[in-house]
Specification:
Helices cover 70% and strands 2% of the residues. The protein is mainly alpha-helical. It starts with 16 loop residues before the first helix and ends with a strand.
Length: 576
C-alpha cells in the first residue's frame, strides 16, 4: 500500500505507535473479508481502532480505516448469522465506543456501525432500541450528507419499517411520503456488509440497481404500511406495481422481486384469493430455494406459508410435505425452541388433525404448547393459539373434559390479550359453549352462546356469518332444552338475516328453514340425536395481514353417527 497521510515515509512521525498503526493497517489491507472466517481479521481491525484512539487520523478518508470498520461490521454480521447476538452486540458496543472517541459520534464510519446495530436490534425484536438507534443515525446523516443522499434515505426507509412494526403509521407514512417526493438518491459512500431480511433493501445490489430500485423499495414499503393498517384495497396495486418494476429492473428471480412476490401472496391470502396467492408463493419459494438455498430463513418462510395456503385449499398431503420441510429446516437453523419452529410445528399439527391423524397431531400440539409457554410465557398470543390448537385436537378425539378446560383457558387468555369484543375472543367463547353442550351442560352452553351472540352483534353486525352462526347454535340449545318458543323466534330471525345477506337459495337458508319447519310441526328432530343439525367451521386465514378478517364460515348438515357428531360443532382453530 502507498504511504498514508500522517504516517510512515514523509509523514512526520516515523516511530512508535505510528509504525504499529502502519503495520496493522498493511495487514488489514492484505487480509480477505470472509463471512465464514473473519475472526482473525476482526481482531486486527479491533487492534487498529484501539491504536487510532491514541493517534487519531488527520482525515476521515483513509483506506485502512474504512477497511477496519468493514471487517468489524462483517464480523458482527457473521455472529448474527450464527445466532450469536450477544457476541455481535459486544463487537458493536466496543467498536462504537472506540470510533466515538477517535472520530466522533457523527463520523460516517460511526454512523454505519450504529445503523448495523439498529438492524440487529430489529432482528432480535428490540423495536424500541432499533428506533432510538435509527433516529440517531438519521440525525447524523441528515446533518453530514443531506436528505437527498442514499445513506440518509436508506435510514429513513429503515426507520419507517420499524415505525410500521410499532404501529406508528402516521410517522412512518410521513417518512415514506418524503422519500417518494425526493426521488432517486445521490450515490452512497458506505459499504455495508450484506444483510438478510424479509424486505428489500436499496443497499443490497450493484450501484446501478441501487439507483434504479430505490424508489421502488419505497413504494414497496408504502404498500407494507397500508397492509399493516388493513387498507388492503390501496396496498394491492402498490405491491403489483413494485413487483412489476422489480422484475423489470433486477429480474424475476432477484431477492427483491421474490420478497415482493411473497408479500403480495400474503396479502392475497388474507383476502381469501387462495389460488392467486399460491401462484406468487410458489414462485417465491422456488426462487428463494434456488437463489439462497433450502436452509435460508427466507426459503423456510415461503415454505411455511405455502403449506398454510395448501391447507386452506384442502390439499393436505402437499401441505403436510411443505410444513414438514419448514419444521425440519427451522429446527436445524433456529433450534426446536425458536418461535418460528414452533409456529410451523403448530400448523403441521393442524394439517395432521384435518387428515384425522390425531395420534401424531396431539403430541406435536402438546410439545409445542409446552415449549412456547416456556419461551413466551403464559400471557402471549403464541401461547393462546397453541392452547386453542391442543383443545381442538383433544375435542376431536372425544376427550371433552380436557377440551372444556382448555377452551375455558383459551377464552381467558383471549380476553386479557385481545379484549372482550375481539373476534377471536368470541370464537373461543363459542368453542367453550360447544363442548359444554357436548357434556350435557345445557344451562352453561346457553349462557355462553347468548354472550357470543351479543358480542358478535356488537363486533361484526347482526348479519355477519359469525353472528348468525352463534344464533343458530343458540337456537339448537334452546330447542333441545325444551324452550321451543324462544328457539322458533331465534330461528326465524336467523333465517330472515340469512335470506337478506345470502338469499333463500343458499344452503344455510335451506337448513335453517328445515329446522324451523321441524319446530313448527313439533315433530321429533333427527338432529336432536346428533346434538345439532349443522356445524359451523371457522377457518382462519394463516399469515394474513395483521387484523385481517378473512374467515370463511359455512354450515353443513351432520351425517355422522352420534359419537362422531359430538366433535363436529363450530370450531375456531386459532393458528400461528
Amino acid at each position: 500500500p502507498s504511504p498514508r497521510p500522517g504516517h510512515g515515509a514523509g509523514g512526520g512521525g516515523g516511530g512508535g505507535v505510528h509504525d504499529k498503526v502502519d503495520t496493522v493497517a498493511d495487514s488489514l489491507l492484505l487480509s480477505p473479508i470472509s463471512a465464514g472466517d473473519c475472526g482473525e481479521v476482526g481482531g486486527e481491525a479491533s487492534e487498529y481502532l484501539e491504536l487510532l484512539e491514541r493517534h487519531p487520523p488527520d482525515t476521515g478518508d483513509i483506506v485502512e480505516l474504512h477497511h477496519a470498520v468493514r471487517c468489524l461490521r462483517q464480523l458482527a454480521a457473521s455472529m448474527l448469522a450464527e445466532r450469536r447476538p450477544g457476541d455481535a452486540e459486544a463487537v458493536y458496543v466496543q467498536t462504537l465506543a472506540r470510533l466515538g472517541r477517535a472520530l466522533g459520534d457523527d463520523h460516517p464510519c460511526t454512523l454505519d456501525v450504529l445503523s448495523d446495530r439498529a438492524f440487529a436490534f430489529t432482528l432480535q425484536g428490540g423495536l424500541d432500541d432499533a428506533e432510538r438507534a435509527y433516529r440517531l443515525v438519521l440525525r447524523g446523516r441528515r446533518s453530514r450528507l443531506g436528505e437527498a443522499h442514499r445513506d440518509t434515505q436508506e435510514t429513513m426507509s429503515d426507520l419507517a419499517c420499524v415505525l410500521q412494526a410499532q404501529r406508528n403509521f402516521d410517522e412512518a407514512d410521513a417518512l415514506i411520503s418524503v422519500l417518494l417526493e425526493l426521488g432517486p438518491p445521490t450515490p452512497a459512500t458506505s459499504s455495508a456488509p450484506a444483510r438478510g431480511g424479509g424486505l428489500p433493501r436499496a443497499g443490497d445490489g450493484g450501484e446501478e440497481e441501487k439507483q434504479a430500485a430505490s424508489v421502488v423499495v419505497t413504494l414497496h414499503n408504502r404498500a407494507c404500511s397500508l397492509a399493516a393498517q388493513e387498507r388492503y384495497v390501496e396496498a394491492e396495486p402498490l405491491y403489483r406495481r413494485a413487483l412489476a418494476e422489480f422484475t423489470s429492473i433486477v429480474g424475476p428471480d432477484h431477492a427483491w422481486t421474490l420478497s415482493c412476490a411473497q408479500n403480495l401472496s400474503t396479502l392475497l391470502h388474507g383476502l381469501g384469493r387462495i389460488q392467486e396467492a399460491e401462484t406468487f408463493c410458489r414462485h417465491a419459494a422456488t426462487g428463494r430455494e434456488s437463489l439462497l438455498g433450502a436452509a435460508r430463513h427466507e426459503t423456510l418462510t415461503s415454505l411455511h406459508r405455502l403449506g398454510c395456503l395448501l391447507e386452506d385449499k384442502g390439499e393436505f398431503k402437499q401441505a403436510e410435505a411443505a410444513l414438514r420441510r419448514a419444521v425440519l429446516g427451522r429446527e436445524a437453523a433456529l433450534g426446536s425452541r425458536d418461535p418460528q419452529t414452533l409456529q410451523s410445528a403448530n400448523r403441521l399439527a393442524c394439517v395432521l388433525e384435518a387428515q384425522g391423524n390425531y395420534s401424531t397431531a396431539e403430541p406435536l400440539c402438546r410439545r409445542a404448547l409446552q415449549l412456547i409457554e416456556a419461551v413466551r410465557g403464559e400471557e402471549h398470543l403464541d401461547t393462546f393459539r397453541s392452547v386453542c390448537n391442543l383443545a381442538s385436537v383433544v375435542e376431536a378425539q372425544g376427550n371433552f373434559e380436557e377440551a372444556l378446560a382448555l377452551h375455558e383457558r383459551a377464552f381467558g387468555l383471549a380476553q386479557r390479550l385481545l379484549g372482550k369484543e375481539d373476534e377471536e375472543t368470541l370464537s373461543c367463547l363459542t368453542n367453550w359453549a360447544n363442548v359444554a353442550e357436548a357434556l350435557g351442560k345445557m344451562e352453561e352452553a346457553e349462557q355462553l352462546y347468548r354472550e357470543a351472540v351479543e358480542g358478535f352483534r356488537k363486533c361484526l353486525g347482526p348479519d355477519h356469518p359469525d353472528t348468525l352462526g352463534a344464533m343458530y347454535q343458540l337456537g339448537i340449545v334452546l330447542r333441545d332444552s325444551g324452550k321451543t318458543a324462544e328457539a322458533e323466534a331465534l330461528f326465524q330471525a336467523e333465517l330472515a338475516a340469512v335470506a337478506r345477506s345470502r338469499g333463500m337459495a343458499h344452503e344455510d337458508a335451506r337448513l335453517s328453514k328445515q329446522n324451523l319447519d321441524w319446530l313448527r310441526d313439533r315433530s321429533p328432530s333427527p338432529s336432536a340425536m346428533l346434538h345439532g343439525i349443522a356445524r359451523y367451521v371457522v377457518q382462519e386465514t394463516p399469515e394474513s395481514p395483521r387484523g385481517a378478517s378473512s374467515s370463511e364460515v359455512r354450515k353443513a348438515p351432520i351425517v355422522e353417527g352420534a359419537v362422531q357428531a359430538q366433535s363436529a360443532w363450530w370450531k375456531c382453530q386459532c393458528r400461528g
